[in-house]
Amino acid sequence: MKAQFNAETGLLEVLNVSKPLGDHGTDYVRELTESEVESINTNADRAKIYRDSGGTLALVDRPAKPVIVPSSVSARQLRLALNEQDNLSAVETLIAHDDTPDSMKIEWEFAGNFDRDNSTLNAAATLLEWDSSAVDSIFILAKSK
């Protein structure tokens, strides 16, 4: 297996792997050993391959993509996420309860979107004993719907 060093990125780009790691030219650095090839093939999806000053290879994990909590999701997305997490019936039970404020019932029934920082939404989450990270995970899942 062949590899080339890309001076612009500092990457040792590997040729002939199942998922190439960049543009490939014909300027090869050196032949790779059998264990390097195996390691590259195993880690190609999650690692960048670097050459240090001594010419050795190092697999460096790519940083995880930051998880972004959406600021708003549609009512449909929210309900689908709640249903997938088996939480929809708990919310509907809370909304149907006699002590639930009418304003919360109206928002649940008629809102087109739900904002993550909505005070009514956060009050409902508190009543359901969901912490902030639980609500974030619902919003993250909802955005994928």
The amount of helix comes to 40-55%
Element string (H = helix, E = strand): EEHEEEHHHEHH
Number of strands: 6
Distance between the termini: 42 Å
Instruction: Walk across the major sheet and give the strand order.
Output: 1-2
Write down the Rg: 25 Å
Largest sheet: 2 strands, antiparallel
Shape: elongated
Briefly say what this structure is:
By secondary structure, the protein is of the alpha+beta class.
Characterise the protein shown here.
The chain is α+β, with helices and mostly antiparallel strands and 145 residues long. The chain has two domains: 3-61, no CATH class; 72-143. It has six helices and six strands; from the N terminus they run E-E-H-E-E-E-H-H-H-E-H-H. The chain has a two-stranded antiparallel sheet with strand order 1-2. It starts with a strand and ends with a helix. The model is unreliable at 16-29 (pLDDT under 50).
Features:
2 domains, 6 helices, elongated, two-stranded antiparallel sheet, alpha+beta, two-stranded antiparallel ribbon, 145 residues
How do the strands and helices of this protein lay out in sequence?
Elements: E1 3-6, E2 11-14, H1 34-43, E3 47-51, E4 57-61, E5 72-74, H2 75-84, H3 88-96, H4 102-110, E6 113-115, H5 119-127, H6 132-143
Antiparallel strand pairs: 1-2, 3-4, 5-6
